[in-house]
Amino acid sequence: FAGQLAEFNDAVAEYGRRLYPKAKSWRDAFRTLRSVIEDDTRKGKKVVFLDELPWLASGKSGFLEALGHFWNSWGSFQSNLLLIVCGSATSWMVDKLLKNRGGLHNRITGALYLQQFTLNECEEFFQASGVVMSRYQMIEAYMIFGGVPHYLNLLTPQFSLPQNVDRLCFREGAVLRDELSSLYHSLFEPADNHILVVTALSTKARGLTRAELIEATDLTNGGGVTKVLQDLMHSGFIRKYHAVGKKSRDAIYQLVDFFTLFYLRFMSDQSTRDQNFWLHFSPTPSHTAWSGYAFEMVALLHVDQIRRALGIAGVLVDYAAWSGEINGSKAQVDLVLDRADHVINLCEMKYTAENLAVDAALERQLLRRKAVFTAATKTKKAVHWTLVTTYAPERTAHSGVFQSIVTADDLFAPML
């Protein structure tokens, strides 16, 4: 493999020398590229793949203009030519390419947004890379790193998950120690307000309205805030949703990027000197509290798997968290599935290392919250409780409060 890789690198270097021998500008380079393609007499599709377009087109490079000229004057007329461009700065790709008002306006055949891995894809990735973990541990890894292949690829097979987390995040010189600043500044320019917004959102599990966000950050209400929110949504760091029974103007912005949440919760305070912080933190009640909320986020990103487990994959479903009150009695629900078949599933999340035993206290709590929800929303639909948990619960006299159960194994189902 090493020999093949060396040959490949030599071939790439030689191709680069051939492609750009006398290029003084990007237009010169594209003219040379055209010559190389025209000289290639092989049959079949010719594919030009340009990676990290935001970097190539940075500053006043003139790259986009040259690319537009190349495509409009010649490339678009070649029936056997495929031009594929890629960039990790999603907001830049949207603003400068998909919404281009220059030579590339309306030239896009199709756009593909690369999403993070699902739990099922993470499991396949771990198996391929030799990392051995239980599904319970894989879920915790997801709570920390999300389904981002770059982060998952940093896990080393010979270490346990807590050891890997300490090695990557908390040890002196850890590779992800300063990741938040590096990541956001590589994607957004400038990035200070983007970091300010996600920091504010990290303090409120279910998110903030635009007005609450402006108050929390002291930013000025206007186009600048709108642009920051759009950037973060396009890049998958936050989502915008409407709570059940709320009007559209009450839209809520929620931070849904796992590593950002983890970083701001545990890593932003650089003063910690414990080189084995996560190993020592894992058995504590604080870890239980964090994992409870993080598991809610895992379920939120696997609603399709939950729908399949409930047998409603073909039913139109709107979903969101909910909180409200009636006659002074307050309640909140981790996840509400508002179904088009006149049923609402109230989802209770429980991330536990052992099988949950539903007792009388939990049953009373759930019945009260269901009553508050039904009265506050004035719904006419049937309301069911659904338990989303790691393992199937023990059978008790009170477990019948749940009409349906979704386990971690269900969350690992592949996408349809």
Overall description:
This protein is α/β, with parallel strands linked by helices and 416 residues long. The chain is built from 19 helices and ten strands. It has helices spanning 2-19, 26-39, 53-56, 63-73, 90-98, 119-129, 135-145, 149-152, 161-170, 179-187, 192-201, 210-217, 223-234, 258-267, 277-281, 285-300, 303-309, 360-377, 408-411; strands at residues 46-50, 81-85, 208-209, 238-241, 252-255, 317-326, 329-339, 343-350, 382-389, 404-406. The strands form three sheets. Strands 6-7-8-9-10 form a five-stranded mixed β-sheet, sandwiched between helices. Strands 3-5-4 form a three-stranded antiparallel β-sheet. It has a two-stranded parallel sheet with strand order 1-2. Helix 2 (26-39) runs parallel beside helix 4 and helix 5 crosses helix 13. The chain is globular, with a radius of gyration of 25 Å.
Report a brief summary of the structure.
Helix content is about 45%, strand content about 15%.
Distance between the termini: 35 Å
What average pLDDT do the residues reach?
91
Q: What is the ordering of alpha helices and beta strands? A: HHEHHEHHHHHHHEHHEEHHHHEEEHEEH
Basic shape: globular
Which strand order does the major sheet show?
A: 6-7-8-9-10
Low-pLDDT segments: none
Largest sheet: 5 strands, mixed
**Into which percentage range does the β-strand content fall?**
5-15%
